[in-house]
Amino acid sequence: MNESLRTLCARIGYRFADESLVETAMRHRSYVAENEGVESNERLEFLGDAILGWVVADLVYRAHADLHEGKLTDLRKSLVNAVALAELAEELGVGECLLLGRGEEQGAGRTKTSILSDALEAVFGAIYLDSDALSAYQVLTSLIEPRLQGAIDGLDRLDAKTRLQEMASKLLGEQVHYKIDDEGPDHDKTFYATVFVGERELGSGEGRSKKAAEQLAAEIACDTLAREHAND
User: Fold this and answer.
1) Catalytic residue among 45, 121, 130, 219
2) Is pTM, for the whole model, over 0.90?
3) Which of 229, 228, 220, 227 is nearest to 87 (CA)?
4) Catalytic site residue 49?
5) Phi and psi at residue 179, in whole multiples of 5°?
6) Which of 4, 118, 162, 218 is least enclosed by beta carbons within 10 angstroms?
7) Do residue 145 and residue 167 come from a single domain?
């Protein structure tokens, strides 16, 4: 295990018995396409996504008896969406540890929201396989629980597409439109969305559905506009 990966594990608060698991969690599919005989992080990401969903659902249910089912669902979504996970991944230093193919490396893959969030979920899956459900729960809770109050305060931000349209109209007097591309077979497509405010490109995202990709692109665009007009 290299030094950056050791630092990542220390920040997460977990020491792996099987270090190959966290090494696999760092391998993006673009790296595997150029290096035969190794596994990508996609299977671990699938597992970690499910574990994260369970942990967050348990946390919000226990912490907020005052919230009905719809708000609990919204709160869970605000904690496990790609933007929130990528922010956490960036704080932990996941980007420094990623193994990427040449194209992603040259295309700033270490800072891409989708790559960072997927890798972090893969780490969660790796922790579960390396230990047990209770240990994984404790590690994930230590990372997610500090963000819970902020998520409560930001429940009105959940529908990024609606929020972006409102911001674009109020701040710029512009309309929002999306450009959608996809790749892969019909049963396993990946969608890519680019969002424009007027003629200006403000965000992009990818997801397993058109809606997920658009929401991610809109969230990034909202954050950009919020920074640019913080003093308005």
Assistant:
1) 121
2) no
3) 220
4) yes
5) -110, 125
6) 162
7) no
Residues 165-220 have pLDDT tens digits of 888 988 898 999 999 999 988 888 899 999 999 999 999 999 888 988 998 999 89
- pLDDT tens digits, one per residue of 53-100: 999 999 999 988 888 888 888 888 888 888 889 999 999 999 999 999
- 60: its two tokens: 């919000």
C-alpha distances (whole Å) from 59 to each of 76, 142, 145 are 9, 11, 8
45's CB contacts (< 8 A; 6+ apart) are: 25, 118, 119, 121, 122, 125
Question: Quick one: tokens of 33?
Answer: 């396409």
Is 121 among the catalytic positions?
A: yes
Q: Domain range spanning residue 218?
A: 160-228
Residue 177: give its domain's CATH number. Answer: 3.30.160.20
Do the beta carbons of residue 195 and residue 217 sit within 8 Å?
yes
